[in-house]
């Protein structure tokens, strides 16, 4: 986080003086610190999750191969199909779920 703060503050130092005429420098410094903290926390929090998920996928693939090689070889090519279908239907499914929740909220408000 300190390195990111230093990098951003180093960039801010290079900005023209007129930029700071309408900007509160204390507020800007607090925002830089808070945003840097948020970004670093997000990245560090997700790195562990990505590593865990990758290890889970590797382990499950290994177990699946040990159980039945032919079935595993049939199912692995279906993963891109699943991903494509997920991205194709993500927005319509989200919209339908959102509409359903709105209808339920209106029903319970009566």
Measured as a percent range, the helix fraction is over 70%
Q: Can you tell me the number of structural domains?
A: 2
Number of helices, counting only DSSP H or I runs of 4 residues or more: 4
What is Rg? 24 Å
What's the number of extended β-strand segments? 0
Share in β-strands: under 5%
Helix-and-strand structural type:
mainly alpha
Terminal residue distance: 50 Å
Based on CA inertia axes, which overall geometry fits?
Answer: flat
**Rounded mean pLDDT score:** 87
User: What sequence of helices (H) and strands (E) makes up the elements?
Assistant: HHHH
Largest sheet: none
Low-confidence stretches: none
State the main characteristics.
about 110 residues, mainly alpha, flat
Q: What would you say this structure looks like, in words?
A:
With 110 residues, the chain is mainly alpha-helical. The chain folds into 2 domains: 1-76; 77-110. 85% of the residues lie in helices and 0% in strands. It has helices spanning 2-13, 25-67, 69-75, 78-109. The longest helix has 43 residues, at 25-67. It is flat. The mean pLDDT is 87.
